[in-house]
Amino acid sequence: MISVNILKKRRDILISKMVAKSAILIFATPENIKRQNEYQFRQNKDFWYFTGFNEPNALFIIVKKDDKFTQKILFNKPKDPDNEIWFGSNLGQDSALTKIDVDYALPWNVINENIYRFLIGLNTIYYAWGEYVEADTLVFDALNNIRNDKSHSSIIPSTIIDWRPLVHEMRLFKGPEEIELLRIAGKISALAHTRAMKACHANMFEYQLEGEIHHEFSYHGVKFPSYNTIVGSGNNACILHYTKNKNKMCDGDLVLVDAGCSFKEYASDITRTFPVNGKFNKQQRELYNIVLTALKSALLMLKPGIIIDEVNNVVINIIVNNLVKIGILKGKVDELISEGTYQQFFMHNLSHWLGLDVHDVSRYGKSMKNQILQPNMVLTVEPGLYISPYANVPIEYRGIGIRIEDNILITETGNECFTNGAVKEIELIEDIMKLKKIN
Ligand SMILES: [Mn+2]
Fold this sequence. Notes:
Strand content: 15-25%
Structural class: alpha+beta
CATH topology of the largest domain: Creatine Amidinohydrolase
Cofactor: Mn(2+)
CATH class of the largest domain: Alpha Beta
Bound molecules: manganese (II) ion
Keywords: Aminopeptidase, Hydrolase, Manganese, Metal-binding, Metalloprotease, Protease
Distance between the termini: 37 Å
Low-confidence stretches: none
Shape: elongated
Catalytic activity: Release of any N-terminal amino acid, including proline, that is linked to proline, even from a dipeptide or tripeptide
Enzyme class: hydrolase
Strand order of the largest sheet: 4-3-2-1-5-6
Radius of gyration: 25 Å
Number of strands: 17
């Protein structure tokens, strides 16, 4: 749940952006989508942002007649004693009025016959089409109902506006309560990475290290990771979306752990890379320090007014210069960059937005690269180096994959790192791994 005060604040901002004689329709995740058979139910984040309501099959509507008159309506599942025996209780309509703070709460099973009543006499409908087929059908049927019913022929909504640009612009700038949750998510995830460092040893399986991470999440009151945990040792660290986590970890290899929890729906996303046996070898150390230097330089630059792409260029420069120095890349730095030769070793983006979603929403349809950073934006910073086992480089560098990822808030003057709890200096990692506190 989100406090009614915060819901009110968010809804008021949304209402201020709506034109008169309009309604906005925001659907929860439907119950019958196929994904749900495979995964636990996860609420639609835009719906959550304005309702804090975690049940499937629901629709939140705000009707704005004019600046003085607005109505909030919720359609949600009715109470059903038979169903409760199997699935437990749900909120129902009566409690929804106060808990979700709406003027009307109506049962989901009568939505077809009733949704159009709230849209009569309006000009504009704000709706994000294409998310759920069921929702599209409901909305377009409702609009057809109004058009076909001659008794309501005075005003028929004729404009449909996608609300995602409005809502996602709001979500891009985090409020104080969101920042606090993201901060906590970062802290818990950092503890999980620390636990993994302490627990790690040769011949352990990658999934066992994953288990240590998830144990620490649940210990701190978190049920879900915010994405599938990646534990890739040895060559697996070079597979960017490796989630099989099935190999035995070998003495002498590095392990890359990309894991973050979702705390009260807010995501964190940390990557740390450390030696399975607790001690970096020469080549691992060299490559690791290149990535760490790149990360630190990025963290120094990330503040209001800067464009991500400028930071990305500095990171690429550091990486390419150093790869030339140790003989992994050969040629002129400028050409290696302009021709993109380095991309075989660093092929992903430096950052993504972070919030309710782990890859959080952005200015609608706009790439993050050219956006000017502003206070209260939250993002990841994650340079990496991946030397494929088949790369044409000195053999001792092959099969080393390293990523170091932090989560930051852009502040008025610079940034605040949420994930410093997980150490990243070589000496500190080696010190922690000596502790081996977990049996
Ligand atoms: Mn990430």
